[in-house]
Amino acid sequence: MKTSEFVTPTAPWPDGRAAAAPQQGAFPEALQSPGNSACVLIVDEHAANLQVLQDVLEESGYNVAVARSVPHALLIAPGWCPDLVLLDQELCAHEGMGQITRLLSMPGLAHVPSILMGPKPDSEQVLAALEAGCVDTIPKPVRAREVLARVAVHVRGRREARQARQALDAFGHASLVLRSVDGARIWHTPLASQLMHFHFEVPEMVTPPSVLRWLRQSIASSQPGAMISARGGRRLELSLHGQTGDDEWLVMMRESSDAVLIDGISQGLRLTLREAEVLYWVVKGKINRDIGAILGMSPQTVKKHLEHVFAKLGVETRTAAAAQALGRVRGLSN
């Protein structure tokens, strides 16, 4: 079991041990593989608490990273990609809820459950932490069995949710849930995050202003339309699927490109890639001269390819061939 201990370099342990600085490159990718144990990030300013929790979790097969401050947690969290965060309640008072909110909403932790540990489960600090994103509380002094039980439940839920998002992506259903009042991204599938970054050049968890305007217009409309974004030969279509909660809206995303559609026409109609390219541009309404210019061939060569296409499809006109190709393209888009 790989174990690393992180403490703030300027704050030594009470027993006099020197503080260990985080080691660059010491974050194995295998921590996130399904075959290995989950990773828990503990954020607690008390060395004794850290040691007890670290021992309990490691003995139960968890990988553990520890930090004695929120800024240090912000530094190491991206490298560890934790499955769960255990957060000391006293940090809410000492470092402020702004820092706690920043930690829980940072890229990579937005979908990670966080549990608050503290002696006063009904305090205003607890309520503020829950509003900031914590999903559970554990009273102090902690009991080992309770900690393990709660951690196991939330880690299992986290992995099931991640698997569900990955399954949506696998079937081409990139999706995200947005809040219209402020554009907050409640959750998203990995593919949806990649598409948003490519098409709108925004960081993770940030909603582009154009998407937020479209969302608000779609909510207000009786017949919401899709939003289209095109970049680098890739076309992204966003559609409003429906409401999932109080001001939470599910948006479905589907991307297409010339290359994907041409390949689909080729495979679906049993044409060569060159024949499929020519037919694709016929569907787009291009004449032979334009198609030749696009594909770098003479109009006569385009005509010869079309003759082969007509023979393979059993049609006699451009319109009939285009109709078959259009049917295939629509099938790829649904």
Write a structural description:
Keywords: DNA-binding, Phosphoprotein. One of its GO terms (biological process) is phosphorelay signal transduction system. One of its GO terms (molecular function) is DNA binding. With 334 residues, the protein is α/β, with parallel strands linked by helices. The protein folds into three domains: 136 residues, Response regulator (Rossmann fold); 86 residues, PAS domain (Beta-Lactamase), CATH 3.30.450; 64 residues, Arc Repressor Mutant, subunit A (Orthogonal Bundle). 48% of the residues lie in helices and 18% in strands. The strands form two sheets. A five-stranded parallel beta sheet has the order 2-1-3-4-5, with helices on both faces. Strands 7-6-10-9-8 form a five-stranded antiparallel beta sheet. Helix 5 links the parallel strand 4 and strand 5. Helix 10 crosses helix 12. It is elongated.
Short description:
With 334 residues, the chain is of the alpha/beta class.
Domain unit count: 3
CATH class of the largest domain: Alpha Beta
Sheet of most strands: 5 strands, parallel
Mean pLDDT: 80
Count up the helices.
Answer: 13
Residues in β-strands, percent: 15-25%
Write the layout of secondary structure elements.
Blueprint: E1 39-43, H1 47-59, E2 63-67, H2 70-80, E3 84-88, H3 90-95, H4 97-105, E4 114-118, H5 124-132, E5 136-139, H6 144-170, E6 174-179, E7 185-188, H7 190-200, H8 209-220, E8 227-231, E9 234-245, E10 248-257, H9 258-269, H10 273-283, H11 288-295, H12 299-313, H13 318-333
Parallel strand pairs: 1-2, 1-3, 3-4, 4-5
Antiparallel strand pairs: 6-7, 6-10, 8-9, 9-10
